[in-house]
Amino acid sequence: MTRNRGFSLLELLVVMSILAIMAAASAPTLRTTIANARIRTAGESWRSGLELARGAAVRLNTSVEFVITDSGWQVTRADDTATKLHQGTGREGNADLTITPTPADADRITFSSFGTPLPANINGEGPPLTQIDLTADGNVVIEGLKPRRIQLSASGSARLCDPAAKARAIGACQ
Asked: Can you tell me the distance from the alpha carbon of 106 to that of 119, in angstroms, rounded to the nearest whole number?
């Protein structure tokens, strides 16, 4: 008696049907996960830019500005704003992102040579930033999207957090 090796056509169709059902069921979850990862990555870019500005102020022993621009963010010396020390898009593959600074009319923060934020920007251009909110654009309709917030402490450190998380949860904003 000989044994047939391989799969029958019916077995192959059953397995393919099961895989198709599993893929269809996981697609919405995967889409939400990818969108949240993009928001978090963009938030890390903004947080890193703030930390770069703070570090540059200490390293150069001078005041340094972190400025929100139309194309993202940039870090410049406060006394020479034409020379960019660092810059970034702050979007990192996520064009559908809304950036909201607090206070609403703030577009920069100046760090002293000690790495602490100055109470007023050197150039007198509006109040200094205290936080930046990152949310998906209103045109993006995906359930489960998590906004992110960057909070600036009085010492100048930047922290990326989840404004929707409960008060004592890991990653919650303070």
From this structure: 13
